[in-house]
Design goal:
Rieske Iron-sulfur Protein, about 230 residues, alpha+beta, four-stranded mixed β-sheet, 3 helices, four-stranded antiparallel β-sheet, globular
């Protein structure tokens, strides 16, 4: 489990990522954007299965829910795994909440991808997350990603492709993340949208906190200004 004393690096440490990219980085942006169609076709061709890391099914022991409240026992979740829970994000609108226990390699990829200059909103400047998640990890604690798994384009559910180069059609720039099978939007392992995707912004992060020495997650609602999707 993450240490409560672990500090997130300040946003200012990564402001270089907002500077004008070098010509080779501009070319990389072009190649990435141009290749998203091939990615969608490749993923569809193999049945849109999620490789390498399986998702855990929520169980009665792992999940309890009340009005606008989701409580998750984090202890059974293994490094690299993703768990999905249904959540009433808005009146009459259920949106899946995903919890990912990120490995050190996954966390390193969130810094590495910023050097590629292919993220639309790398520092999460749009209010798609609470203030405490406005960092490169988009989370309270780097290890734990808590996010609405809804593509911000048309509300489809992106699939989890956590391994580098695992997404069919993607090349060396794919360091792991999420791919939407509907229209091809792609996101990194913090839910940050990649340039060339039809999705307009990063995936939304709900309001949440940890309890019981960080072994229990409590989701309390959609963060006010955020938009789960534009549909």
């Amino acid at each position: 489990m993450s240490d409560e004393k672990q500090d997130l690096p300040p946003i200012g440490d990564h402001e270089d990522s907002l500077r004008e990219p070098a010509p080779d980085m501009k070319r990389r942006r072009f190649l990435v954007a141009g290749g998203l169609g091939a990615i969608s076709a490749g993923a569809a061709a193999i049945g849109l299965i999620t490789p390498f890391v399986s998702s855990l099914a929520p169980t009665q022991a792992a999940m309890t829910q009340g009005p606008n409240k989701l409580v998750v026992d984090l202890k059974p979740i293994k490094p690299g795994q993703m768990v999905t829970f249904p959540y009433l994000a808005e009146p009459h609108a259920i949106a899946p909440v995903v919890v990912v226990r990120r490995t050190p390699e996954m966390l390193a990829s969130l810094i590495k991808i910023m050097d590629q200059h292919i993220l639309r909103d790398p520092l999460s400047q749009q209010p798609q997350q609470p203030p405490y998640a406005t960092n490169i990890y988009r989370s309270r604690k780097p290890e734990w990603l808590v996010m609405f798994n809804k593509c911000t384009h048309l509300c489809c559910v992106p699939q989890y492709w956590p391994e580098p180069r695992s997404l069919p059609g993607a090349k060396d720039w794919w360091l792991g993340g999420f791919h939407c099978p509907c229209h091809g939007s792609v996101y990194d392992l913090a839910g940050r949208v990649i340039i060339g995707s039809p999705a307009p912004q990063n995936m939304a992060v709900p309001d949440y906190h940890f309890e019981e020495a960080d072994t229990r997650l409590v989701v309390t609602g959609k963060y006010g200004p955020s938009g789960i999707c534009i549909f």
